[in-house]
Specification:
Layout lengths: L20 E6 L5 E7 L6 E5 L10 H7 L4 E5 L15 H15 L6 E6 L1 H8 L4 H6 E7 L6 H4 L9 H11 L10 H11 L6 H12 L3 H12 L4 H5 L5 E6 L8 H9 L3 E7 L6 H4 L1 H16 L10 E2 L3
Parallel strand pairs: 3-4, 3-5, 5-6, 6-7, 7-8, 8-9
Antiparallel strand pairs: 1-2, 2-4
Keywords: Hydrolase
InterPro entries: AB_hydrolase, AB_hydrolase_1, AB_hydrolase_fold
Protein name: Alpha/beta hydrolase
Length: 316
């Protein structure tokens, strides 16, 4: 399961399992989206939206653990993985694409947990007012994401907060330079910028293969969208139960964003903080992320109750 722009692990926890179904879904502007469906057709549905420079392979650990008793739907954002590049790169396009995937994979009236990591969470915020999204979203999980001020708050560069750090961060994150092959130096840089200190070599390798597999043009185009992102209004429209999950050592999207989301969400379903984890939480803490997804499905998709939201701090 590989192509010119699709790289991932081929064995172990982070090797993507074979899907039950593969689809090509057209979006509103005829962009073509690669979609996978895993697990039993009649199981409760989970939709997973990946982040910038990633692909469906980023969710491999969650798919592997959930697909036995959930229907897990994953897709490649336009220009990522097996979804071809599009000249249209906007938050509106992200919302269009998510709605197209929901229309193609869920029946009328069916509800799901919709989870997004990083840009995938921003996709959910962009879709917050869309009728189809609202009809299908029983609950939401926002992982390692933020709604605005992404470059200004980024701590990838060890500099004091201010205009200089913002300008240099924008240059680094928006670079048009190809990432090249995955080398020992590339792994060290990726780990420093996006992962916690306890990340294992396998975790770093899994992320490096995925990120380095993202086409340079798509990486740059979407970096420009993220640099000027303002989806604060979308957060306030997420009035379904919405949980937040974040790594305390996230340099790329620091924890200040998680606390802002918690304060602004109309129906926050709790904050899960993962001590020592960086930005790549589904890879760095696969059991905890998968466990949070299971909890949300059992409470809001298949369950009848809605417990009072409680902040959750998971131990190291």
């Amino acid at each position: 399961m590989s192509g010119p722009h699709v790289t991932h692990m081929t064995s172990g926890t982070y090797a993507p399992p074979a899907p039950a179904r593969e689809l090509t879904v057209p979006s509103t502007d005829d962009a073509r989206l690669y979609v996978e469906v895993h697990g039993p057709q009649d199981a409760p549905a989970v939709v997973l939206s990946h982040g910038w420079t990633c692909s469906t392979a980023f969710w491999a650990a969650q798919i592997r653990e959930l697909a036995g008793d959930h229907r897990v739907i994953v897709y490649d954002q336009r220009g990522h993985g097996r979804s071809p590049a599009s000249p249209v790169c906007t938050t509106r396009a992200l919302a269009d694409d998510l709605e197209a995937v929901l229309a193609a994979t869920l029946v009328d009236g069916e509800q799901a947990l919709i989870a997004g990591h990083s840009m995938g969470g921003m996709t959910i915020m962009a879709a917050a007012e869309r009728p189809r999204f609202r009809a299908h979203a029983a609950a939401v999980l926002l992982a390692s994401t933020g709604s605005s001020r992404l470059v200004a708050e980024a701590r990838v560069l060890p500099l004091r907060e201010g205009p200089l750090r913002t300008r240099l961060s924008a240059g680094v994150l928006g670079s048009r330079a190809p990432l090249g092959p995955v080398t020992p130096l590339a792994r060290r840089i990726l780990k420093y910028g996006t992962m916690g200190a306890r990340s294992t070599p396998e975790m770093v390798e899994a992320c490096a293969r995925i990120v380095h597999g993202c086409p340079t043009g798509a990486r740059h185009a979407w970096s420009q969208v993220l640099a000027s992102l303002d989806l604060d209004h979308g957060v306030r429209r997420l009035d379904m139960p919405t949980a937040v999950l974040h790594g305390t050592a996230d340099r790329l999207v620091p924890p200040v964003h998680a606390h802002t989301l918690v304060a602004e969400l109309p129906r926050c379903a709790g904050l899960t903080e993962l001590p020592g984890a960086g930005h790549m939480t589904p890879v760095e803490e696969p059991e905890r992320v998968t466990g949070r997804i299971r909890d949300l499905v059992s409470t809001y998709v298949t369950g009848a109750g809605e417990p009072a939201p409680q902040p959750i701090k998971e131990g190291a």
